[in-house]
Amino acid sequence: MSETVPVYPFAHPAALEPSPEWERLRDECPVSRVRMVSGDEALLLTRYADVRELLADPRFTHSLTAPDAAKVSTADDGGVFSSENSAMTASPDHPRWRRMMNKSFTVKRVTAMRPRIEEIAHQLIDDMLAGGQPGDLQSALGFPLPVFVICELLGVDPGYRDKFSHWSDAMLNLTKYDQDELTTAAAEFQAFMVQHVQDKRSKPGDDLLSELAAVVDSQDGRLSEQELVITAQGLLVAGHETTANMIGKMVSMLLADRPRRWERLLDDRGLINSAVEESLRFDANPGFGLPRYISEDIEVAGCPIAAGTTVVVSMASGNRDERAYPEAGEMLIDRVPNPHLAFGVGPHSCLGQALARTELQVVLAVLLDRLPTLELAVPAGELRRRDGLIVGGLEEVPVRW
């Protein structure tokens, strides 16, 4: 392991460019000590094979509230790594919950939503065009589309969009909020969702949450009300913030090298799906990675790791590993196959990946149809990162058309 302890997350030379530390650590020290924002130390994995192996390892647990687990930030309590969320995902009942969610959150359900996602995308682009150019693709399309979609999926009034944005930002930010602010946001979010779940139980609608609420406290105990509340919170945060940021990053990456990427998509719409997958792989601004707690002694890349260690896996660094991908440092929109790590692997892989893929595919197809002359209104190097956000993102994406 390296003798120095760098501060993590690492600095990036530009919003769309990877940290040079990734390549250095992959080559020299694939299991490296890092220091969190909290001051606690953890181990960081940067190679594709190691990241993939550990993501699928049941000893790589969610027990981040264990007494000896490293704190990710100075204000962990109430955030995305809160005790309630960790307890649920670390629970022996997690496979039962996952099976239940897989039955309801199906590809079939997501596919049926595609026409509505297209309708929302067209309306948001109409509004952006009406506002004149240059416009901000992030605020006009990237942020609102996923929250409208997830609100419809969960039967939530989209009028709460600003509140959702604040709550999810608080839960996913490492540096922006102190503990009092985080506690307040978490309590507000919890109270809202408890009431919403109760409303769905008494007056169900045609949405995912109503379907799940119908089996709360059923005879076989498939889903408790607490689990339903935490599930709804997790889906709302993940369905809003992660895809919202990925839309802006994907379009920015495709426009940053416009002659080779955007024009090729204009000529061949059959590349849309592979371009989405390559955008997910190539994303150099994914945020923090996944922190997990090691429940027993293991060995990774020839390095012993003791039980009680907190390990962060960098899926983004793994996705840039030349050992796994030829020309890993190039964005090849026709790359197939593309077994990237953006959604994780194993029993804890992203539950909403089918929805995220559908939203990204729809947004890209609609933009190509509606705005074929779309271009960045500033040099790609001037795009600004959203600092401190666990899932990464851009402050804005100025565009012309």
From TrEMBL:
Protein name: Cytochrome
Domain of life: Bacteria
Family annotation (PROSITE patterns): CYTOCHROME_P450
Gene Ontology molecular-function annotations: heme binding; iron ion binding; monooxygenase activity; oxidoreductase activity, acting on paired donors, with incorporation or reduction of molecular oxygen
Keyword terms: Heme, Iron, Metal-binding, Monooxygenase, Oxidoreductase
Family per similarity comment: Belongs to the cytochrome P450 family.
GO biological process: antibiotic biosynthetic process
Pfam families: p450
The UniProt record lists the keyword Chaperone: no
Cofactor(s) needed: heme
